[in-house]
Amino acid sequence: MKSKLLLTAILAGMIIFAGCSKKDENNTAKSDEVIPVEVVKVKKEKISRSIDLVGTLAAWKEANLGAQTTARVEKIFVEEGKFVKAGDLLFQMDDTQLKQTKIAYELAKNDYERIKPLFEMGSVSQSDFDRIKAGYENSEKTYNLMLTNTQFRAPFDGIITAKRMNEGEIFMLVPGAFGAPAVVQLMQLGTLKLITYVSEANFRDVKLNQPVEITSDIYPGEVFRGSVSKINPTINSTSRTFEIEVRIPNPSMRLRPGMFVRAKIFAGETEGIVISRASALKQLGTTAYYGFIIKNGTAVRVELNVGKEFDSRVEITSGLSEGDDLVSKGQGLLKDGSKVQIKSNLE
Predict the structure, then answer these.
(1) Mean pLDDT value across the chain
(2) How many CB atoms lie within 10 A of CB 214?
(3) What CATH code would you report for 33-47+271-346?
(4) Do the Cβ atoms of 103 and 142 come closer than 8 Å?
(5) What is the CATH number of domain 67-92+152-182?
């Protein structure tokens, strides 16, 4: 009985050993498998540097015009959409107080004009002349102040974009649904501005008067041109960005405040390594990229840092050197240390 059991154990061991030997042979065969690949020689090339931004357009100048005191709106001379020039009369408030102030001003003026020649002849004392002159000057200032707070004129050329009140309504110094109290809103639309924010990493790349290209989904394929008009000298410690203002000429007025646009600031050219996007493999579940270069017939895995993207190509900021043989096809079958056969070398 014992001899039978011993024989059975020996046979089982021989079977297991044979199976393991066969498995090792298969693994050796796989590890020695030569994988055909295509490679490309890594080269440096000129890269046009730009900063891509987004934002919302605003009027170059904007004014919400209203009185400094509570008063009735007597007359509005403009409608929404009307173009006005600086100095044009826009609306007038109740002028009852203006009329009373004007009467007082004219009386004081008459007194001053009557007494001035008498003072010059020596018929009026210095103190009487100074008192009348001071009264005249004060009444003139009061009248002019009341005039500017009754008749409101355009402070700059622009378009009336909103009429917030109607004639006969009472204007009150209380913020409404649109913010600051106003009778009309005036905007300058012949020039627009874009306020946007740039990463601190690009602080040295942005300069005054630098060209900026503006695009909008409303006008596909069209490019509007502007320039950097202001740069905030400080960086926000929370967002790590700084504010810039872009001035955009808009003579045709096709662009309007409130439009969402994309901006591209050109920051010159530098040299860098650009490869086909397919040559950079993304590691599953991460944002990391890797690729394979060939050294002495063996695939070497390298970690890639990706920079600027150009449609089907991508810049590599680290991981590759000029002259490397980069696998461009067949890399999906490779692992670090795989034996390869180069089918073609694409220059």
Answers:
(1) 85
(2) 24
(3) 2.40.420.20
(4) no
(5) 2.40.50.100
